[in-house]
Design goal:
Strand content of chain B: 25-35%
CATH superfamily of the largest domain in chain B: P-loop containing nucleotide triphosphate hydrolases
CATH architecture of chain A: Orthogonal Bundle
Helix content of chain A: over 70%
Number of domains of chain A: 1
Strand content of chain A: under 5%
CATH class of the largest domain in chain B: Alpha Beta
Largest sheet of chain A: none
Low-confidence stretches of chain B: none
Number of helices of chain B: 17
Mean pLDDT of chain B: 91
Number of strands of chain A: 0
Helix content of chain B: 25-40%
Low-confidence stretches of chain A: 338-345
Distance between the termini of chain B: 62 Å
Structural class of chain A: mainly alpha
Radius of gyration of chain B: 26 Å
Shape of chain A: globular
Oligomer: heterodimer
CATH topology of chain A: ABC transporter involved in vitamin B12 uptake, BtuC
Distance between the termini of chain A: 25 Å
CATH architecture of the largest domain in chain B: 3-Layer(aba) Sandwich
Structural class of chain B: alpha/beta
CATH topology of the largest domain in chain B: Rossmann fold
Chain lengths: ~350, ~525
């Protein structure tokens, strides 16, 4: 309860500071916030648009949060997302003949597995060679983005000027909830993913062990937990979920793979996870907040002269204000561990 | 003549009363020990004296004059200084710079470095506090940093020196040195208050002691007229046994744990160097030794955290040398680690989750990898009661518990799972007297049930109190072994520090047979 209040105050502070900066720059902050809110939630279409932007952020936020729980920093959600998107598009275009629903399921599964393998490389490198997962996942991002770029420009390029694959069959596309808006049944898959991860962390031995490793690796090892296996599992799960973000975008929104389709959902996932304090259900709320900022930014552009960069600034402020109390706490804890030997204070 | 008089001090926090009309007086020129268990209110009382906290009620007199101490700078002006447990030093500055910080000497506009160095050298000579004024503080060992803190207090012309748990971070040798310095300061007429929960130190150093319990003053005594047992009783509120535990009466002692010629190398250096020992069921074998003589590696070899390079570990005759930690746990090796916060507990986890760590794959806690949450809760509730773990609930995070209660979580977890052999490493480190007694009783109870207990402790007293047999580890080997009454303290000390008996000057021993 206390933590929730701190969180809300931090959020409020971020918006107040954002408003002050706007005011100093000579804009009307109230007008800007009104335009944002109306743009995000003002109408049925606005809400649908917000939810469409929220869907991939739930996946990537959840992916980063799952790895974080195990003490792993998966910066590679963006690359895993591109790999997943490409695999989903290829299954859609080339594995024809199956009933639509089955084909969609197969595409999601194949995308997830490839994403898991992609992130699993970083997990393996960490376990086997103590290579830091931050470095490895960043490298893998470059490889994934370049590789999918190559595939979509040469072997699997559709006719025309645009570097994209052929369109996937209509039968396997995720249906739109409020056509023509881009929110699809994919959002239910995302929500289900959060619930499953919540359950996994709290009700299964795997989740218990991953959490133990994330908090205290030495105690986990002493408690007989095999660290390597669980790190690999956490990384693979994270990659699986991040890849679903890409697959759901392809199957629902774009209907084909197109070069550079993600506006950095993988990186925003880090912000979503931090705001959610890595809680799988918290991810839903924080993804919605970031989705609403993205959703409302178009209206902000239309209605006011406030530059849309303002939205990015707000995102940054939210992270700063949410992260600061948390970082301070961590530093204090580290200091305390550093030089105290059992006593009151 | 009293240097400090605190009358009727009361300090309340949100839901506790840290000090409940405490009266505390310190004579000028004495060393006064402020004793009490963790949470008894010692630190709060001293923070009030130093102006870090304001009392809700009460009066403070310094050298007979009533004073209002609103903040530490008032206290410093009155000649009061506090050496905190967490040193308030700046690592990147030199010793001299740290000492004069806030009260710098100047030469016109400029900081007078030479003057600062000279002042520190002078103080260091006067009181026998050896430091190099030009060395930067970051490079100093803990004991020396503490010396810098004391110098800082003396530089500010403190007459009343408060030290908060000064020995908690020191090695035994540094403690000896600190006590020498404190006695010297007393000679020079300074008044010293040490906050502690250690009885030996109080008996050794102090002139008088005041005991706090639950925020109240239980009494002030002259050290010459008291005993550790009386002080312990005052601290805990009941009689505490200092007697040796009765020897084991368990009838059929079979060999449960055996190590044969164990060799373990770290970075090509043998840290276990042909170690052999055996522990029978129904016995406690105490391993005495100066820390760093292979105790940690011995524990690791038995618990699977590392494997012997040569030699064997046998559990009831079965070779378990190369088993993994989880296999060791399942074979019946119960492990109470030497560093509970690092190795034993996940601080962010609840008591409930910590009570299954290591045993969470047992059928009673999971099926098909799904946790049996109800069983786990019931298990936690039972253990919380049986081991008297003081906490709000089983969902309390372990990091919020006191050291003693944290250790009860570790011990409860191991003892409830029917181990065959118990490895108890430093089982009472950083734990209150009351909890120490409880933990000792639990270990003896396990012994009486026929389990083999391997006790590894840096506290010689603990070894002598509990063990049926004693072995001394020195440079990775057992250099002495026998029933507990076979050695007196001097003999043990000689084996521990030189690896030889007292009357055995330069000959190699072969006592591990």
């Amino acid at each position: 309860m206390n933590r929730l209040i701190t969180l809300l105050i931090s959020l409020l502070a971020a918006f107040v500071v954002g408003g002050l900066i706007l005011a100093v720059a000579g804009y009307d902050p109230f007008e800007a916030y009104e335009a944002l809110i109306v743009g995000a939630f003002g109408s049925k279409n606005a809400i649908a648009n917000t939810l469409a932007k929220t869907t991939p952020l739930i996946f990537t936020g959840l992916a980063v949060a799952v790895a974080f729980r195990g003490g792993l920093f998966n910066i590679g959600a963006e690359g895993q997302l591109y790999m997943g998107a490409m695999v989903a598009a290829l299954v859609g275009v080339y594995f024809t003949g199956l009933p639509g629903l089955l084909q969609a399921a197969l595409a999601l599964l194949a995308a997830g597995v490839v994403g898991a393998v992609w992130a699993g490389i970083a997990g393996f490198m960490k376990v086997k060679f103590q290579a830091h997962e931050v470095i490895v996942t960043i490298m893998l991002n470059y490889i994934a983005i370049s590789l999918t770029n190559y595939l979509v420009n040469y072997p699997f390029k559709a006719e025309g000027m645009v570097p994209r694959t052929e369109t996937i069959p209509a039968g396997m596309q995720l249906s739109r909830l409020l056509p023509p808006n881009q929110v699809t049944t994919g959002i239910f898959i995302a929500i289900l993913g959060c619930i499953i991860m919540y359950w996994m962390f709290n009700r299964t031995v795997y989740g218990y062990e991953i959490r133990a490793i994330g908090h205290n690796q030495d105690a986990a090892r002493t408690g007989g937990i095999s660290i390597g296996k669980r790190i690999l599992l956490a990384m693979c799960l994270s990659g699986f979920i991040a890849a679903l973000a890409g697959a759901v975008e392809v199957l629902g929104v774009h209907k084909y793979f197109v070069s550079g389709f993600s506006p950095g959902y993988g990186y925003d996932g880090i912000a979503v996870a931090v705001l959610a304090r890595n809680h799988p259900l918290g991810v839903l709320v924080s993804a919605l907040l970031f989705g609403a900022l993205r959703g409302g930014s178009m209206n902000l552009d239309r209605q006011t002269d406030v530059p849309t960069d303002f939205v990015i600034m707000i995102q940054a402020l939210v992270i700063i204000f949410v992260a600061i109390p948390w970082i301070i706490k961590k530093v204090k804890l580290m200091r305390k561990r550093g030089n105290s030997v059992g006593s009151q204070s | 003549m009293y240097a400090v008089e605190m009358h009727g001090i009361t300090k309340r926090f949100a839901n506790t009363t840290a000090n409940d009309s405490v009266t505390f007086t310190v004579k000028s020129g004495e060393i006064h020990s402020l004793l009490g268990e963790n949470g008894a209110g010692k630190t709060t009382l001293m923070k009030i004296l130093y102006g870090l906290q304001q009392p809700d009620e009460g009066e403070i007199r310094i050298n007979g004059v009533t004073r209002q101490i609103d903040n530490p700078s008032v206290a410093i002006k009155l000649g009061i200084a506090m050496v905190h447990q967490h040193f308030m030093l700046i690592d990147s500055l030199t010793v001299a710079e740290n000492v004069v910080l806030g009260y710098e000497k100047r030469k016109g506009w400029l900081f007078d470095m030479a003057g600062a160095v000279q002042a520190v050298e002078q103080l260091s000579e006067t009181y026998g506090l050896k430091v190099n004024p030009r060395q930067s503080v970051g490079e100093l060992p803990v004991g020396t940093k503490q010396r810098v803190e004391i110098l800082k207090a003396l530089y500010r012309q403190a007459d009343i020196l408060i030290l908060d748990e000064p020995t908690a971070v020191l090695t035994p040798l540094e403690v000896v040195e600190l006590f020498r310095v404190l006695r010297e300061l007393k000679q020079a007429g300074k008044t010293i208050i040490i906050i502690t929960h250690k009885l030996n130190e109080t008996m050794d150093l102090a002139d008088r002691a005041t005991v706090l319990r639950g925020g109240k003053n239980v009494g002030t005594v002259n050290i010459s007229e008291t005993s550790p047992a009386q002080l312990a009783e005052m601290m805990v509120g009941r009689k505490i046994s200092f007697d040796q535990a009765p020897l084991s009466a368990y009838p059929n002692r079979t060999k449960l744990l055996e190590i044969r010629n164990g060799i373990l190398r770290k970075h090509h250096v043998p840290v276990l160097n042909g170690i052999s020992l055996e522990v029978n069921g129904g016995e406690i074998l105490g391993i005495a030794g100066v820390e760093g003589n292979g105790q940690t590696e011995l524990i690791e070899a038995i618990t699977g955290l590392s494997s012997l390079d040569e030699g064997q570990v046998l559990l009831a005759g079965r070779d378990i040398t190369k088993q993994s930690p989880v296999q060791m746990i399942e074979s019946g090796i119960g492990h109470i680690p030497e560093d509970r916060n690092k190795l034993g507990l996940v601080g962010e986890f609840s008591i409930r989750d910590n009570l299954i760590l290591g045993y969470h794959n047992r059928p009673s806690f999971q099926r098909f990898k799904l946790l049996k949450v109800n069983n786990i809760k019931r298990h936690a509730a039972q253990l919380r009661k049986r081991f008297a773990i003081k906490s709000e609930s089983i969902d309390t995070k372990v990091k919020a518990l006191s050291g003693g209660n944290q250790q009860k979580v570790v011990i409860g977890r191991v003892l409830s799972q029917e181990p065959i052999v118990i490895i108890a490493a430093q089982p009472t480190r950083g734990v209150d007297i009351g909890a120490i007694e409880y933990i000792h009783q639990q270990l003896i109870e396990m012994r009486d049930q026929g389990k083999a207990v391997l006790l590894i402790s840096a506290e010689l007293e603990e070894i002598r109190k509990l063990s049926d047999k004693i072995a001394v580890i020195y440079e990775g080997r057992i250099v002495a072994y026998g029933p507990r009454d076979a050695f007196d303290e001097l003999e043990l000390g000689s084996y521990m520090t030189r690896g030889k008996a007292i009357n055995e000057p330069r000959k190699e021993t072969n006592a591990d047979e």
